[in-house]
Amino acid sequence: MAFETKNFYVARKHGLAKSEFTVECNVMAGMNVSKVLSVSLGCSRGASEVLNGIINYSGVVDTKVVFIGEDGQLNTISSMCPFSSKFESEDIENGQVAIINLKIIDHNIESVNGEAIKISVILEQSGCIIANKEVHSIKNDDDDMCCKDEDISIIKFIGNKSENVEVSSEFNVRDKVSKIVLTESNVIVKSVESGMNFATISGEVSTKIVYITDNEKFESGYVYDSFKEELELEGVTRESLVDGNAKVIQENVAVELVEDEKGCKIVIKVPLALSISAYGEENISVVKDLYSIKSELKVTTESFNMTCICPMETIDGKIEGSLSLDENQPRVDKILFNCGNSVTITNSYLKDGEIFIEGIAKTTVVYLNDESNSLYSAQIDVPFTISDKFEHQEGGMIMVDAAVYDADVVVKKGRELLYDAKVKACVNYCFDRVSGIITEASVLEDYQPKDYAMEVVFAHAGEDTWEIAKNARVKEEQLITQNADVVFPLENDASLILFYQKV
Fold first, then answer.
1. Beta-ladder partners of 128
2. Per-domain residue ranges for the chain?
3. For the whole model, what pTM was predicted?
4. For 177-214, how does the pLDDT look when each residue is reduced to its tens digit (9 = 90+)?
């Protein structure tokens, strides 16, 4: 009597260990730097390689530094700083798909020496690995073997698809523009929908623009553009579960100034790295229980984990805060602009049917002090918490992307800066479902033959035909046929009759 294997695959999504590391960025301004006013940072992930036990990947930190040169003029320099990093874990295997998230936690201007600006950037790396895991199951068609099958629902990983696209936006300006100080672009995913062999990912790109007009006036504004892209992925159906993310490829953002008689327009071309991961649900039949009418069996049951994907959700919130300048800092007589707008998610959790997202919003305010007739800057850090209804079980893995927009700063009494902004968060959530299954069975020894023609079986209330037949080591058909007047499951304790043919 041999048991055959009937293995199947289920999706498993493991979180990668979160950690921080520092990237040293050396920016050459092209002229001697008198004062650094602000630093705007972005980061992009490059190529990755998944091997047994390790994920190697590369990336770029994009820096935009606004500074005053030795000639007293305001200037901006952009620079790219490449880096490499890795994840190490016993769970990482060749062939898995790696989703890597990079966040800028903080930065520090280490030194300014002539035209060289040295900046330490603290990055946080996190993410997950996705693969199909084989689950062992058995089947047996032996006539002496009784098997009870069960239909179960499983989730399988269909695959991952990445694609780069470009979103072009225009910002119309009535006045002539003498200089574009900087642009800062963010992206947020709003929805992911599945189709036949494709998924549609859509969202919004927001770009803040700071510029100087011909009459030397500082101006700033936001431009918004939506995107909707179809990514082809074989095996996806309309019932598939798909999550996705989008990142700005900061180092390739392009800005162009186009003038006409009425004024000018600023054209911003923002390249995006889009990615989707798709999962499919299907029903399969497995052996839930089994026994032999002739032999004693050794049955091994094991549990397996399967990752269940929840539909992506977006959350909008508002952030408010303030900063009081130290007495040794020059007072604020006029705010020129704010930049370096970013948001860092520090924690996220589920509680009582709600999701809570905690983070820190940051901005740098560049202002004028009339007494010295000089420009200064101050950084504002505002902790915040946003929440929304989230009807999913607790204990799963939360992955949050967030972007801040419409950031505004006003001054009160020259020393207090009041910050106001909006934040959008995209939440991808999954959790593990644990199921048990028979993974192995073997024959130990044969039962002694029954040398009697009839047997009375004492059964208890609530027992069904499977339980009674298993205990009696007969087939269900025999039990039912020979006790045709009995209703199962039993309402009361009962004595049942079984007849055997003596050979």
1. 15, 99
2. 12-131, 448-499
3. 0.87
4. 889 999 999 999 999 999 999 999 999 999 999 999 98
